[in-house]
């Protein structure tokens, strides 16, 4: 008997997946950023945190995404809400966009941990 569709989705594409983006300067890794995939519930929450909700800019959403989802290797948040102004004003926009795009895409290129194997009984 095969698993139900919901179980297959959760096992293959669920929040247990972990991704890694290495921010590099030449060959040197400056910062490792880990994250779990963005869920619909998290996306709605991040949109709600934006100043004008759905009317806010993509930049606002992306910045909130980075603050909420970026983790260190131990699973602790790298950024706090109070870092938003500094990230916005003091960090190169293209660097932030590279990280944010990696987080949004969460493709196999950044996958760190494989999902559980298909369960068949």
Describe the structure in your own words.
- The protein is 42% helix and 16% strand.
- It has 121 residues and is of the alpha+beta class.
- It has a single domain (17-113), classed as rbstp2171 (2-Layer Sandwich).
- A 3-stranded antiparallel β-sheet has the order 2-1-3, with helices on one face.
- A hairpin with a 2-residue loop joins strand 1 and strand 2 (28-35).
Record keyword descriptors for this entry.
globular, disordered C terminus, rbstp2171, 121 residues
Largest sheet: 3 strands, antiparallel
Which stretches are low in confidence, meaning pLDDT under 50 for 5 or more residues running?
A: 115-121
Kindly state the number of beta strands.
3
Mean pLDDT: 83
**CA distance, first residue to last residue:** 5 Å
Instruction: Specify the CATH architecture.
Output: 2-Layer Sandwich
What is the beta-strand fraction?
A: 15-25%
């Amino acid at each position: 008997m095969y698993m139900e569709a919901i179980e297959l989705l959760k096992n293959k594409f669920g929040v247990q997946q972990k991704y890694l983006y290495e921010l590099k300067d030449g060959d040197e890794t400056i910062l490792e950023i880990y994250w779990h995939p963005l869920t619909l519930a998290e996306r709605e929450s991040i949109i709600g945190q934006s100043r004008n909700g759905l009317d806010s800019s993509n930049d606002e959403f992306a910045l909130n995404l980075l603050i909420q989802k970026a983790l260190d290797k131990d699973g602790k948040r790298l950024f706090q809400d109070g870092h938003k102004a500094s990230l916005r004003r003091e960090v190169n926009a293209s660097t932030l966009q590279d990280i944010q795009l990696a987080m949004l895409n969460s493709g196999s290129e950044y996958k760190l941990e494989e999902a559980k194997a298909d369960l068949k009984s």
